[in-house]
Structures are given as structure tokens and as C-alpha cells.
Design goal:
By secondary structure, this protein is mainly α. α1 runs antiparallel to α2. It is a multi-pass membrane protein.
């Protein structure tokens, strides 16, 4: 591949590869810090979440250098990201003190389920009491995505090796359209569960910087899922012109991978700043009423 690149192309590839290596080194340094400073109950979850951006950057870099591996690198990033969505929900529960403490804090509270991305326009939906059962359904909403997406991706690879699965063939007769729609539905339900939980705990966890953390998580969702899908659609419809020897779809894949490397590099650096700060533990549930006064002491 490098033999077919001109000087600007080689410089771009070298720069993006360097950004990927720096992102990996930043994550390794951050993981060592988390392992030493963060309690064991939160350690693995925070490391998983921080690994999302460098993993996506690494898979994009491999796909950029080895175009034939794009199918495997995209699917690897997709599987990892499905697990991270579940981990983010569990992180919010752990930051509240765990499931038992969360239920005590919101003993008489209710979840607002009219939130995005599924039901943001359905304001007439009732508010659901916060119980052990509703927490179970929220965790199941993200866990199903972490389980079923790898299964569907494995099925896609099996069909692809047999020549039955073509990524850019979205005709109703092909499996790509139906598998993509099913994965899309699972993704919406998982994001909906995270959105419901975030809407409830965002004020309580404001001292833990949960809003910037959620914003970084949302950026990863939008850039890795929505941005890549839009670019692939443009490439399939020939809106992105071909540039021999690259076809429209191959060029669209290159553009998506190069953008992701730069974006995930920035998110990795920002995540290091957001997650590395030291935060005070929350007051016991009996003292939640004093929360507004405690906000002034937030470091």
C-alpha cells in the first residue's frame, strides 16, 4: 500500500499512525495510574471505558494500512464498543455507591423513560418507580447489546467468508440489511437504558464530573456509529467520488478511518484529564438533602 502513496499521502499515514501510538501510550499511562489510585471495585470499569477511544483508533489504523482487514477491524471495534456501553451504565451505578445504596438514595424516586434516542418525543409516557426490578431491566438493556452484537457480528463474518454477506449491499434480499437493522435496534435500546439512568443521576453525580464523562461517551457513539454510517452511505451512493485505484466505497472507508483516528486521539487525551481528577466520595444516603451545599466544596 505504501508504495502506491505519494509524499503527502505517506506523511498523512505516518502522522495518523503516530497519533495512534501516542493514544495507546496515553492510555497505558492512564491505566497504570487508575490501577494504583482507584479502588478495586471501580478500577476495571473505568479502564474499560477509557480503552474505548484508543481501541477504536488502533483498529482504524490497522484498517487504514491493511484495507482487506477492514471487515475484521470494524467488527472488533463494534464488539468492544458494545461492552463499553454496558460498562458505562455500571459505572454510574457504582459511582452512586452500588445498587443497594442507589435504591436507598432514590427510594421514592422515579425514572423518566421519555428520553432519547427511543422515546424523547413520547412525553406522555409514565414515570417508572426506581426498584430492583427496573434496575434489572436497565442493566439488561445494555447487557443484551454486549451479548447479541458479537453473535450477530460473528454470523456476519461467517456469511462474508462464504460470499453471502456484502457490507455495502443493502438490498432486501441480502442479509446485510437485516443484520444491520437488527443491530441498530439493539443499539437504540442500549443507548436508551444509559440515557434513562444518566437523566436520573446527573445531578447527584455532578461532583464526579459525570456530565463531561457522558459527553465523551456520546461523542464516541456519534463518531463511531453515526459518522461512519453516513460516510458509508455517501460512498455507496457514489457521492464520494472514486479516485483510482480506490473505488468510492474504499475511499469512503479510508475517510472514515482517518477521521476516527484523529477524533479518538483527541478523546483519549481529554479522557485522561477528566478521569484523572480526584473526587470526593458522595455523602451517605441520609445526607443527600445537603447536596446543594456540598457542591460548593467540589474541587
Amino acid at each position: 500500500l505504501s508504495a502506491g502513496l505519494d509524499l503527502p499521502g505517506r506523511f498523512l499515514f505516518a502522522t495518523l499512525t503516530l497519533m495512534t501510538l501516542i493514544a495507546i501510550l496515553v492510555f497505558i499511562e492512564e491505566a497504570v495510574y487508575i490501577y494504583r489510585k482507584i479502588p478495586s471495585s471501580k478500577r476495571s470499569i473505568i479502564i474499560w471505558i477509557n480503552a474505548a477511544a484508543p481501541v477504536i483508533s488502533t483498529t482504524s489504523c490497522i484498517g487504514m494500512w491493511v484495507p482487506r482487514s477492514t471487515m475484521f477491524t470494524d467488527f472488533t471495534a463494534g464488539i468492544f464498543f458494545a461492552i463499553v456501553i454496558h460498562k458505562f451504565l455500571m459505572m454510574m451505578i457504582n459511582e452512586c455507591g452500588g445498587q443497594k445504596v442507589l435504591l436507598r438514595r432514590f427510594e421514592n424516586g422515579r425514572f423518566t423513560i421519555s428520553t432519547g434516542p427511543c422515546c424523547c418525543c413520547c412525553l406522555c409516557l409514565p414515570r417508572v418507580p426506581i426498584t430492583r426490578q427496573t434496575l434489572f431491566w436497565l442493566k439488561l438493556g445494555t447487557f443484551q447489546f454486549a451479548v447479541f452484537r458479537p453473535v450477530l457480528i460473528f454470523l456476519s463474518i461467517v456469511l462474508w467468508t462464504n460470499g453471502n454477506y456484502v457490507l455495502y449491499n443493502l438490498s432486501p434480499k441480502g442479509p446485510a440489511l437485516w443484520i444491520s437493522c437488527f443491530i441498530g435496534a439493539l443499539t437504540l435500546f442500549a443507548l436508551w437504558a444509559v440515557g434513562i439512568m444518566f437523566r436520573k443521576v446527573r445531578i447527584l453525580l455532578k461532583c464526579k464530573n459525570i456530565i463531561p464523562k457522558f459527553a465523551l461517551y456520546q461523542f464516541i457513539v456519534i463518531l463511531n456509529q453515526l459518522q461512519t454510517t453516513i460516510i458509508n452511505i455517501f460512498a455507496t451512493q457514489k457521492i464520494i467520488p472514486c479516485a483510482p485505484p480506490l473505488s468510492s466505497t474504499a475511499r469512503g472507508s479510508y475517510i472514515a478511518q482517518q477521521l476516527l483516528i484523529m477524533e479518538m486521539f483527541l478523546i483519549t487525551v481529554i479522557s485522561r484529564v477528566v478521569y484523572r481528577r480526584k473526587y470526593h466520595d458522595l455523602e451517605p444516603p441520609e445526607c443527600v438533602a445537603e447536596e446543594p451545599g456540598d457542591k460548593k466544596q467540589t474541587p
